[in-house]
Amino acid sequence: MSLAWSNLRHEKIRTAVAVAGVTFAVVLMFMQLGFLAAVERTATVIYSALDFDILLRSPSYLHLSDPRMFPSQRMHQAASYPGIERVTPFYITINGFQNPETLKRWSILTMGVRPGTVPFQMPEITREVQRLTNSSAAIIDRKSQAKYGPVNGVAFSDADVGRVAEIGGRQIQLAGTFELGTGLAANAAAILTDNGFVRATPRRTVEQISLGLVKVAGEKSSEEVQQISDGVRQLMREQRDVVVMTREEAVRRERRYWLFDKSIGIIFLMGVAVAIVVGIAIVYQVLSGDVARHLGEYATLKAMGYSDGFLARVVVQQAFILAILGFLVGWLVSLLLFAVTSKGAGIPIQMDVRIVTFVFVTTLLMCCLSGLAALRKAQRAQPADLF
């Protein structure tokens, strides 16, 4: 390790360039993976807040913000199956939002709940939903982007309770706030009663359900929930207007839609691949050039009896040192960029263990592969090269 470190210290500028190249690749990987994880997280943020074991939804369901509709009779059928505790209707769509004070229009994720039901498993939302005492009342997500706020650039807070706005061209009054997150289709979210939802969504009735949230009775294992889900599916086998699936299936399909069916996930995955290729190219060029400049020294070592294995260890050790230095600098830079991006753009981009581990291992492999590729020149070094 001392020889490898001495080689890198001998040409500080070239080493700094190599570290900068690895840092660039590391930062690029961190950012692409951070955005990819944010897509995965926001894709299912609403599902994570809903309380259900089995889901009823339309066969033409596209994604959570565009779930289409199925008739309410299917909920009554599901509720009749043994082991079902309750079936709760849930309404969701994208609507227009306008603040009368700023007169700006934006899209807003609008959810509707039936009074007296408990579709959410988050205590704060359940408590705030009780404030929806009429069809004109609404509660709004505090994580909505600040541009939606009554004062441009200032996010919603409890201080805005009582203010008036418009959803779907209908006047609503803010009755409270909650904190959830809006998903990928809109930058704001609000909850109304089922009648309030229909009022703000023309051509919809309360009998046209977006999602049916099925809760099984008692504590059931995933296998038992799967059996009940299969039973409900069999019960409705002749119906063509509803699809039955477990919570895990619904979440998995939603993630797959945003990560693989939509271009957004593929773009970020390609970004990670590009970062790896760029890192390999940069480190290879640096190590290859270093080996070429020191062929004479390597030939001398061979003449002294050192093996190709020893030379290989030296080159790989140099790659390892570059990987560690580049990763540490890239990690610190990425932490700063994550914080700035999350606060400035409202994207829930977070540094978690999965991302750090993947980038660290990938950086080591990337640099070691570059070192192994550069070894060919070192292995060709012969004592005759001295003359």
Tell me what the structure shows.
The chain has 387 residues and is α+β, with helices and mostly antiparallel strands. Helix 2 crosses helix 8, helix 2 runs antiparallel to helix 12 and helix 9 packs parallel to helix 12. The mean pLDDT is 83.
Layout of strands and helices, then pairs:
Blueprint (H helix, E strand, L loop, with lengths): L1 H9 L1 H32 L1 H5 L4 E4 L12 E2 L1 H7 L4 E15 L6 E9 L9 H7 L7 E5 L22 E4 L2 E9 L10 E5 H7 L7 E2 L1 E6 L5 H14 L7 E4 H15 L1 H31 L1 H9 L4 H38 L7 H27 L8
Parallel strand pairs: 4-8, 5-7
Antiparallel strand pairs: 1-10, 1-11, 2-9, 3-4, 3-6, 3-10, 5-8, 6-7
- Return the domain count: 2
The helix-and-strand class reads: alpha+beta
Number of strands: 11
Fraction of residues in β-strands: 15-25%
The shape is elongated
Unreliable spans are none
Helix content: 40-55%
Average pLDDT rating: 83
Q: How many helices in DSSP terms?
A: 12
Distance from N terminus to C terminus (CA atoms, Å) equals 28 Å
Largest sheet strand order: 3-4-8-5-7-6
H-E order: HHHEEHEEHEEEEHEEHEHHHHH
Largest sheet: 6 strands, mixed, barrel
Assembly state (oligomeric): single chain
* Rounded radius of gyration (Å): 29 Å
